[in-house]
Design brief:
Distance between the termini: 46 Å
Helix content: 25-40%
Number of helices: 10
CATH architecture of one domain: 2-Layer Sandwich
Structural class: alpha/beta
Order of helices and strands: HHEHHEEHEEHEHEHEEEEEEEEEHEEHEE
Strand content: 25-35%
Number of strands: 20
CATH superfamily of one domain: ANL, C-terminal domain
């Protein structure tokens, strides 16, 4: 039986917002009428339940409903999600990316250093897994032969490029824009990137394969990201499932208003952030702040509460002895720290500080082992995780 407009309730976050109310009802009604999955997942009335990543993975074929796969996630949760967008929805996302470039002055000739297993190989693209020196040689060739003024890459890779340039006493002044994509861009990464690319403005997008661009970093108030609220309904829910207050961190839940080939309704993407009111006065879109990234990358204290990576990362990344690191939680009171050392590093001093840090944050019984290595691999889609929680793939 087809749902009527009246038996689909609006999530509390959208009530009193006519645009959000109308589009949420429309996509929820469409899904109830046309999607085999939603016919039983939201069989009753009321507010549709949350679609978690685990539910999506278990019912991926049913959600696709025989349609071809037009995109897939990197597999950071060990089982990639397969997605279908129709042509109109794809064009809408492309328009959003052009619009975001407009916030920074428009499209510039660009180069991309990304994982080519997840991105189309083009003359202006290069494989992120290649050595840093080769990446920089490619970038210089693009600048001098093709007039490239912008570089698009993952924040962790940009930090690697910046570190290489710093050690060599070099900069790349020709670039006017850096675009951080896919991974969470942390404020701590900005200073070293800005030093290496001194004339470049730093943009960052928050996106996912399932729904495309979710938000773009505000060029006027970089603590905030403006939401693509014309195409997505975004909720921020606390531990009780209620809407977060402004500035309160909660889980991000997304409804795609316009994907009518594979609907995503109240999709709990697994990220954490807080709703915000941006005071830039330039961009008439709601915003988020305190973007903390995946819940699955959080660390668990032995007493059960989560420990945010931001409580540990400054003490690790700013250590003079290392170039790169990765924290792996193997048990509530046991961790492994993968580390790439700088030349002449005092390993003993570093290990002593780290043991003290982890015991302070996780208890006196905490065990910490060290894996001094020459390479820390990226995930298949090119992303790099500095913190891997108990349920994450190592």
């Amino acid at each position: 039986m087809m749902a009527t407009m009246s038996d689909i309730d609006i999530p509390e976050s959208f009530r009193g917002r006519p645009y959000a109310e109308r589009h949420f009802r429309q996509i929820a009604q469409w899904a109830r009428a046309h999607s085999p999955f939603y016919r039983h997942f939201h069989a009753g009335g009321g507010v549709p339940p949350l679609l978690t990543r685990e539910i999506l993975q278990a019912h991926n074929d049913e959600l696709l409903d025989g349609r071809p796969v037009s995109g897939r996630t990197s597999g950071a949760t060990s089982v990639p999600v397969r997605v279908n967008w129709g042509g109109p929805r794809s064009r809408l996302d492309a328009k959003d990316n052009l619009s975001y470039a407009g916030w920074f002055g428009g499209i510039l000739p660009h180069a991309k250093i990304v994982a080519l297993v997840a991105h189309e190989k083009k003359p202006n693209s290069f494989e992120v897994a290649r050595p840093v020196a080769e990446q920089l040689a490619f970038l210089q060739e693009q600048i001098h032969a093709h007039g490239v003024k912008s570089l698009i890459s993952y924040p962790t890779n940009l930090v690697q490029l910046a570190g290489h340039l710093h050690q060599a006493g070099q900069t790349v002044p020709e670039l006017l824009r850096i675009v951080c994509m896919s991974e969470l861009f942390e404020p701590s990464q900005e200073a070293c990137i800005a030093e290496a690319f001194p004339n470049a403005r730093i943009a960052a997008t928050y996106s996912c394969t399932e729904t495309g661009m979710i938000a773009g970093r505000c060029p006027h108030n970089p603590d905030n990201y403006h939401l693509m609220a014309h195409k997505l309904g975004v909720e921020f829910l606390n531990a009780d499932g209620r809407p977060c207050a402004e500035g309160e961190v909660g889980q991000i839940v997304i409804t795609d208003y316009f994907n009518r080939t594979m609907p995503f309704i109240r999709y709990a993407i697994g990220d954490l952030a807080a709703p915000a009111r941006c005071d830039c006065g330039k961009i008439d879109l709601p915003a988020l702040t305190k973007l903390l990234g995946k819940q699955r990358g959080l660390l668990r204290h032995p007493d059960g509460h989560y420990v945010f990576s931001t409580e540990l990362s400054p003490h690790i990344r700013d250590s003079a002895e290392i170039r790169q690191y990765q924290v792996i939680q193997e048990a509530p009171d046991r961790f492994r720290l993968r580390v790439i050392a700088r030349d002449g590093a005092d390993a003993g001093a570093f290990e002593g500080r780290m043991r003290a840090l982890f015991r302070t944050n996780f208890g006196a019984a905490t065990e910490l082992s060290f894996d001094w290595c020459t390479e820390i691999p990226r995930l298949p889609g090119g992303k790099y995780m500095e913190f891997i929680g108990l349920k994450d793939p190592a």
